[in-house]
Amino acid sequence: MVDIISKKKEGSALSREEIIYFIEGYTNGNIPDYQVSALLMAIFFQKMNKEETVYLTEAMMNSGDLIDLSDIEGIKVDKHSTGGVGDKTSIALGAMVAACGVPVAKMSGRGLGHTGGTIDKLEAISGFTVDMTKEQFVNNVNEIKLAIGGQTGDLAPADKKLYALRDVTATVDNISLIASSIMSKKLASGANAIVLDVKTGSGAFMKDLDDSFDLAQEMVQIGCQMNRETVALITDMDQPLGCAVGNSLEVKEAIETLKGNGPKDFTNLCIHLGAYMLLLAERVATVEDGKKMIQDTIDQGTALMVFEKFIQAQGGDPKVIYNTDLLSKSKGIYRLQALEQGYIHKIQADIIGMSALVLGAGRETKESVIDLSVGIVLNKKIGDFVEKGDILAYVHYNDESKKEDALQLLENAYEINEIKVQQRQLIFGIVSKEGMKRL
């Protein structure tokens, strides 16, 4: 291990065997934290080349269980988002893609951060559960084309150990380490192809647009070298996605989107991501054909029908589709008003997310209990004109003191200016094996 640290410290590339040795040794507990910390710092400063990054991803992927989806018919396409505020995409998108006949077999986790993960959000539906046998999971996908399960088994345990160490050694912010962390889990999850939603902006992990493109390129290259068709879209997270931020509020918005009543930006993102999923599943020949097919699932109500069957198959109350008031609701709603007139120039997504966390919508630690009913619903977005006193957002709360703490944060989330500003771009570019295209 000393030789490996020294080699990387001097800027040389590590071999596949050296990377496997360090990952296996660290996962098994044979290599101590202090040596891996030294190697991570050497990687941080000297970087990794593309081959090293693929070897690292492969070693982390093989450090634990590999999910076998071969009993599911058809090409399995997974979607992964690098995370943001109000990102309820998987909930609506899964039903849209499944309604096109493409199997969606998704493993999701619980969230640490401003809101819960996909599973936490779906559990706002009474009775919904991800507790299924493998046979039930496979049968659900084969019959209704959609199932969302919890991350069972031990997927990429090396990543869990490495991430915890990176967090306390200030080595998180490295493209190779980020890309291998994300892709090792996705590749272990068994999909044939992967569509990546790489967020950029104030509410994203990658704040800078160029850094977001670099991360997308690195992940697409890893996927393609590991024989998985992979495409990445670089999408906006400088303001929350859609309007709802908070678990039951986001499920309600996803259901409204399936009915054709969703926010424009959220609906458009689902249509674009879905089109690329259909393309990789060889269901359509062009992206435009894919967009039309996804839009048809909304217009014709087929995505909503799939979502109803999906909820019922996983123990949830399907009546929520037709009466979203059955979702958990907060005791109070505070109307946040504009203090001046003008155009909204900024809505700091990270501040909105932190406000939702303060209200109780997310977890600060793994032990935290989520309040599924609280959150924030935006009434205005960037580019909208507001008069003094207009409602900017609705704050759903159960605890008066938490509401006051959230409002102190929200005061700094908005920037209103007299000068007109354009609506923000939703999709900044696409990265595929053919190359990078900025829009």
TrEMBL record:
Name of the protein: Pyrimidine-nucleoside phosphorylase
Catalytic activity, reaction form: 2'-deoxyuridine + phosphate = 2-deoxy-alpha-D-ribose 1-phosphate + uracil; thymidine + phosphate = 2-deoxy-alpha-D-ribose 1-phosphate + thymine; uridine + phosphate = alpha-D-ribose 1-phosphate + uracil
EC primary class: transferase
Domain Pyrimidine nucleoside phosphorylase C-terminal: 343-417
EC number(s) given by UniProt: 2.4.2.2
Subunit structure: Homodimer.
Family: Belongs to the thymidine/pyrimidine-nucleoside phosphorylase family.
Pfam family, one: Glycos_transf_3
GO biological process terms, semicolon-separated: pyrimidine nucleobase metabolic process; pyrimidine nucleoside metabolic process
Single annotated GO MF: thymidine phosphorylase activity
Function: Catalyzes phosphorolysis of the pyrimidine nucleosides uridine, thymidine and 2'-deoxyuridine with the formation of the corresponding pyrimidine base and ribose-1-phosphate.
Annotated signal peptide: none
Entry GO terms, CC: cytosol
InterPro entries: Glycosyl_Trfase_fam3, Glycosyl_Trfase_fam3_N_dom, Glycosyl_Trfase_fam3_N_dom_sf, Nuc_phospho_transferase, PYNP-like_C_sf, PYNP_C, Pyrmidine_PPas_bac/euk, Pyrmidine_PPase_CS
Keywords: Glycosyltransferase, Transferase
